[in-house]
Amino acid sequence: MKIAIPLAMGQLTAHFGHCQEFAFVNVEGGKIDGMEKIVPPPHEPGVLPKWLAEHGVTHVIAGGMGGRAQMLLKESNIDVVTGAPVEDPEVLVNAWLAKTLETGENACGHDENHVCSH
């Protein structure tokens, strides 16, 4: 399992499409088995879901994400969790694995026809 988390200054950012980098967290046997941080390609509609799929991502934990991005990720068989709090990637993944990750509303809140561009 590979979980992607959009980051700004090392923590989750609500702005999925405009993050500084992604943490790719590898999970084996229910535990974190490594992490790398990678700068994504420039933001264009539809680019990030394809890029994440090409990197073998299976899950995304995000603060906010537009409906179109969620749809494209799901089409690539990538599970999406939105409404996660601003936190370090390891803390988020460990909470998600323990089924204790508390999520609120999708911080983007746009419908599927709009792009989240805060």
Automatic annotation (TrEMBL):
It comes from the Bacteria. Gene3D superfamilies: Dinitrogenase iron-molybdenum cofactor biosynthesis domain. Pfam families: Nitro_FeMo-Co. Coiled coil: none annotated. Residues 11-96 form the Dinitrogenase iron-molybdenum cofactor biosynthesis domain. This is Dinitrogenase iron-molybdenum cofactor biosynthesis domain-containing protein. It comes from Desulfoluna limicola.
